[in-house]
Write a structure and sequence with these properties.
Elements: E1 5-8, H1 12-22, E2 32-35, H2 39-49, E3 52-54, H3 57-62, E4 66-69, H4 73-83, E5 92-95, H5 102-109, E6 114-119, E7 129-135, H6 141-152, E8 155-159, H7 165-173, H8 175-192, H9 197-216, H10 221-228, H11 234-244, H12 247-271
Helix pairs in contact: 7-12, 8-9
This protein binds 1,4-dihydronicotinamide adenine dinucleotide and (2S)-3,4-dihydro-2H-pyrrole-2-carboxylic acid (A1CAB).
Function: Catalyzes the reduction of 1-pyrroline-5-carboxylate (PCA) to L-proline.
Pathway: Amino-acid biosynthesis; L-proline biosynthesis; L-proline from L-glutamate 5-semialdehyde: step 1/1
Domain Pyrroline-5-carboxylate reductase dimerisation: 162-264
Length: 272
């Protein structure tokens, strides 16, 4: 695809996307541009992925058709101020900053700009991400299709109303961290029961991937759970220990707290 992609901020999420694109089918490394205040980071990204690196954010804007904003929310305002003169209404800006609303971006860049807001997750790195998307309706249909096609190379794109972004952030944005913690904890249990760490991790990971796949195929998690749970068996012994410790509620609370924090960040940004 003959589209130049820029990343302003070359941290964890930018790298996840870059890795997804470089291993994907649409974007050549020579079409990817990235800037970061950290020169070592740029050196690393250039050496690892063979992409173009730039010492200024403006230089990335001048070399891109689609500009991803992949800096932390608190840096966004300064970055937007820095690039606004270089941006043209023909370019598309894609922001992934948690809690940063489109209207706040428009406040700095002007409301003639084509703006897409996404909430991706780290799984874009292996092209299995979830990417929630909304936009400011300034993009032409074919431009929106191109953005969606490019993002789809890194995972599943779901169009969501902007008012639901805090909830999406709590589930699919932060969600991988909740699952990584679960994997680690279950593997610890396996080690406690005598399994070597590597074997425990392998067993847990395969079990989680397979379980998710069965639910994805349309089976209800509760029905599946009951099929595993024999009367007076091992599973009910484990499940009752989880229920006794409030694990189910802990997960509900984790999502609720992440949601609340996302709203808090949005409200703080609103006031800036
Ligand atoms: N990490 C994750 O799983 C997710 C992160 N996000 C969002 O993605 C954005 C980036 O997050 P991460 O990659 O985790 O953060 P990060 O801290 O790993 O990356 C940010 C990068 O921006 C660079 N930077 C700082 N100031 C800059 C400036 N003025 N100009 C250019 N570069 C600058 C930093 O050196 C750093 O490399 C955030 O807004 C976050 O809310 C969204 C979804 C998931
Ligand atoms: O923790 C955070 O704020 C970001 C947003 C979603 C995942 N990481």
């Amino acid at each position: 695809m003959n589209v130049r992609i820029g990343f302003i901020g070359g941290g964890n999420m930018a790298e996840a996307f870059i890795s997804g694109f470089v291993n994907g089918e649409l974007i050549l490394p020579s079409k990817i541009h990235v800037s970061d205040v950290n020169k070592e980071r740029l050196e690393y990204l250039k050496n690892t992925y063979g992409i173009n690196v730039h010492e200024t954010n403006v230089s990335v804007v001048l070399n891109s058709d689609i500009v991803f904003l992949s800096v932390k929310p608190q840096v966004m305002k300064a970055v937007l101020e820095e690039i606004k003169e270089a941006l043209t209404p023909a370019q598309v800006v894609v922001s992934m900053a948690a809690g940063y609303p489109i209207k706040k971006i428009e406040e700095t860049l002007g409301d003639d700009k084509k703006i897409v807001r996404i909430m991706p997750n780290i799984l874009v790195k292996i092209r299995k991400g979830v990417i929630a998307l909304t936009h400011n309706y300034r993009l032409l249909d074919e431009e929106l299709s191109t953005v969606k096609e490019i993002l789809s190379d890194c995972g599943e794109v779901v169009e969501v109303e902007e008012k639901l972004f805090d909830a999406v952030t709590a589930i699919s944005g932060s969600g991988p961290a909740f699952i990584f913690l679960t994997i680690e904890a279950l593997a610890d249990g396996g080690v406690k029961a005598g399994l070597p760490r590597e074997a425990a991790l392998k067993l847990v990971t395969a079990t989680i991937v397979g379980s998710a796949e069965m639910v994805r195929n349309g089976e209800h998690p509760e029905v599946l759970k009951d099929k595993v749970t024999s009367p007076a068996g091992t599973t009910i012994a484990g499940l009752s220990a989880l229920e006794e410790r409030g694990t189910r509620y802990s997960f509900i609370k984790a999502v609720e707290e992440a949601f609340k924090r996302s709203k808090e960040i949005s409200e703080l940004i609103e006031k800036l």
